[in-house]
Amino acid sequence: MPTSPFGRTVCAMVTPFDSDGGLDLDGAQELADHLVTRGGCDGLVLNGTTGESPTTSAAEKTALVTAVAEAVGDRARITAGVGSADTRQTVELARAAEAAGAHGVLVVTPYYSRPPQEDVAEHFRTVADAVGVPVMLYDIPARTGTRIEPDTMLRLAEHPRIAGVKDCANDLLGSAKVIAATGLAYYSGSEELNLPLRAVGAVGYVSTVANVAGPAIAAALDAYDRGANAEATRHHQRALPLIELMMAAGLPGTVTAKALLNALDLPSGPVRSPLRAASPDRTKALLEAYESTIAGRA
């Protein structure tokens, strides 16, 4: 397996806000410490999709990285989302994140403009050339409109600072081919694929569900890595109802994660518009699925 600078059991952390919608840095530090100390996470991704990056300013993004880096130190790897549709802005965000203490940066495919593959590759190379920390590529074509094609991944793997991939392409064959041909550290970005991707060589996951159920999500990988395949399958299957309700039932993962965190009295706060809070009925259903998942693990 490739050695990864980003961790193994990585949480795509929400960005806590106060009741007025402002950045809650104390809450962010408390939540980050919880995720690392008790939540089964050895890495955190900040300012990603789950972190509501489209609605936070550059200054807020940098402040969040600084605060979380202070809170967790070297107990976990901190990867900062720095993606935008503008290469120059992405470079600026990446440099600011590195200066604020991030151990790596997560760079999403430029969205909306739908650049051709060589332009996509040049975007990533430009960002990687601009920083001194490892780069994780974020392949999520359902949101960006553009895939990082496997052949493009193979070329990008030659760059000395492009070290990993957060894989939300839902193409097991394509991912397996790149894993087999490169030293890129692959991470499942879709919890239902955590175990299948690990079986073909991925090193771990970047998970929204880990905000609330990190130990339960990690249990499947832990069992698999011990060679306990049947146990790994049981853990994976037990978490599927919660995964489905949080990630595939019509609401964004940010909304469902914050609903559960607030119900569990962990730092979270509201989501920012245009997102809206989960309804009481949905929150109740989420809590029931969460309690079933946690009880099943006990």
Structure, described:
The protein is an alpha/beta fold. It has a single domain (9-229), classed as Aldolase class I (TIM Barrel, Alpha-Beta Barrel). It has helices spanning 25-37, 58-72, 87-100, 117-130, 141-144, 150-156, 172-181, 194-199, 210-225, 229-247, 253-263, 280-297; strands spanning 9-12, 43-46, 77-81, 104-108, 135-139, 162-167, 185-188, 204-207. An eight-stranded parallel beta barrel has the order 1-2-3-4-5-6-7-8, surrounded by five helices. The radius of gyration is 18 Å and the shape is globular. The mean pLDDT is 96.
Write the layout of secondary structure elements.
Elements: E1 9-12, H1 25-37, E2 43-46, H2 58-72, E3 77-81, H3 87-100, E4 104-108, H4 117-130, E5 135-139, H5 141-144, H6 150-156, E6 162-167, H7 172-181, E7 185-188, H8 194-199, E8 204-207, H9 210-225, H10 229-247, H11 253-263, H12 280-297
Parallel strand pairs: 1-2, 1-8, 2-3, 3-4, 4-5, 5-6, 6-7, 7-8
